[in-house]
Specification:
Layout: H1 3-8, H2 12-22, H3 31-61, H4 63-74, H5 82-88, H6 91-96, H7 98-108, H8 110-128, H9 134-148, H10 152-160, H11 168-194, H12 204-226, H13 239-253, H14 263-270, H15 273-302, H16 307-313, H17 316-335, H18 339-358, H19 362-389, H20 394-418, H21 428-460
């Protein structure tokens, strides 16, 4: 039997397993050395990145907490759709500056880029504590979006340059879990800050922004001191460790050496429908996450809980989301499958939305919020890993990651406009719009799985050239 015939009889899974065990250069290094180095990387990168991302999420979504703590009355946000507009306007610069941010990242270096982003949005957050009108609040929200735009895509891009494809989702999940846990406690911390009401003449909601803004600026110093750069330039690894890391990446996807980002390459990625499918899936994942972030306290208030009870009850669903997110990430990396586990979480989210929207008991509605959190949160790192696993080259990775996360900003705009004040307390139109996004994501997962499986099959049969222009590369389903 010829080599080509034998290869045509192999399934995609068999080839991927074969590549992982024969091509990967781990065998050339002491397994203890590899394990120790990866653990060192995890401990150096994931906690600080998770903490920074947690602060980013808190700073962009704490408007809902501040609203219940007196901001609505002070700034007259109850007039028309002022609250929704103030929530939404942040996402306009956030979306537009994603791709430029990831291009600038390579020129500034990761540490400087991240530090500028963190200090910049911390200053905007601090400024929100001193606004006197709704218009001034909107200006601060725009500035917040400008500086946060380059942050999250940079984090994802940096992490994916250090690890092999099927090691990525657990890492993305870990730093996202750090953000979930920290974000889950933010309502409790915010409640404590509101107790400062009247101190120096400031209301409780103002103290939320002042304290969190000052803390964010302080974290900018930590970003400068401890944030990781790219593998080829970072100074916290030895030359032997650097070589091992780059060897593993090169064997896995042939892009350990950064290529130049050109206009032609950027346009090619922008014209690729697969790039936009990842973006639409990420939009579908972030929409329920933002909806919960902005509206969980108003939903709890509608159940008859007091402001303090609503703030405290906002935290437990984050604990369930933490467990669910890591469980699905572990399953995805273990099975080397992405789509099936993402689909499972879509169904969990849909179930939670139906329970919260259409049941009458406070206990069941609250349980529905747990399910929404569990389904939406795990899809965020899941889609990012799905996208990262199916592209090669630094230039395409940078642009595709930026597109994906920019569309997550569209999810934020969608959430803040369809979850309308006039639909309080059930927000039924918002619930149906969120479910429609989950159904769209299920459809895209089916289409992508079909396309990727067909391309893998054609490559195995020798009927097409190397996938993604990379010899030995096969798509992850």
């Amino acid at each position: 039997m010829s080599d080509s015939k034998r290869s045509s009889d192999l399934r995609v899974d068999d080839i991927e397993k074969h590549e992982d065990t024969t091509v990967a250069p781990d065998a050339h290094y002491d397994p203890k050395f590899v394990k120790k180095t990866l653990l060192m990387l995890d401990l150096r990168m994931l906690p600080i990145m998770g903490l920074l991302y947690a602060v980013a999420l808190i700073d962009r979504t704490n408007l809902g907490i501040a609203r219940t703590a007196g901001m609505e009355q002070d700034l007259k946000l109850y007039i028309g759709e002022r609250y929704s507009i103030a929530s939404m306007i942040y996402f306009v610069p956030y979306i537009l500056l994603q791709i430029p941010g990831n291009i600038v990242l390579r020129y500034l270096g990761a540490r400087l880029h991240l530090t500028i982003c963190v200090v910049g949005w911390g200053a905007a957050q601090l400024g929100m504590g001193f606004v006197r009108t709704w218009g001034e609040l909107c200006v601060c929200r725009v500035i917040l979006g400008v500086f946060e735009a380059g942050f999250f895509p940079a984090l994802v891009y940096i992490i994916t340059t250090w690890y092999k494809r099927h090691e990525v989702q657990k890492r993305l999940a870990v730093f996202y879990i750090v953000s979930i846990v920290t974000g889950g406690f933010s309502p409790i911390l915010a409640y404590a800050m509101t107790l400062l009401k009247g101190t120096h003449g400031y209301n409780g909601w103002q103290w939320i922004f002042i304290i969190e803004g000052a803390a964010t600026i302080g974290l900018g110093v930590l970003a400068w001191l401890f944030a990781a750069d790219f593998p080829e330039t970072s100074k916290f690894v030895t030359e032997e460790q650097r070589k091992m890391i780059l060897d593993r990446v090169e064997a896995d996807r042939k892009d350990s050496v950064p290529d130049e980002v050109t206009l032609k390459k950027v346009v090619a990625v922008l014209l690729d429908p697969i790039s936009w499918s990842f973006g639409l899936m990420f939009m579908a994942s972030t929409m329920p996450a933002y909806a919960v972030g902005f509206f969980i306290t108003p939903i709890l208030l509608s159940m008859g809980y007091t402001v303090s009870e609503s703030l405290l009850l906002s935290a437990p669903p984050a604990g369930a989301a933490m467990i669910s997110t890591f469980t699905f990430a572990w399953l995805a990396d273990k099975t080397k499958k992405r789509a099936v586990w993402l689909a499972a979480q879509n169904f969990i989210c849909i179930t939670g939305l139906m329970v919260t929207g259409y049941t009458n008991s406070n206990a069941t509605r609250y349980f529905g919020l747990f399910l929404v959190n569990m389904g939406a949160s795990g899809c965020v790192p899941g889609v990012l890993a799905y996208q990262a696993n199916n592209v090669t080259s630094h230039s395409k990775r940078a642009v595709t990651t930026a597109i994906t996360i920019a569309m997550g900003g569209v999810g934020g705009i969608f959430a803040t406009t369809v979850w309308r004040q006039k639909d309080f307390p059930r927000y039924i139109p918002g619930i149906w719009a969120t479910m429609a996004c989950q159904l769209m994501m299920l459809l895209l997962l089916c289409v992508n799985s079909f396309v990727f499986a067909r391309r893998n099959k054609l490559r195995r049969e020798g009927k097409c050239g190397p996938l993604e222009n990379t010899e030995g590369f096969y798509y992850t389903l």
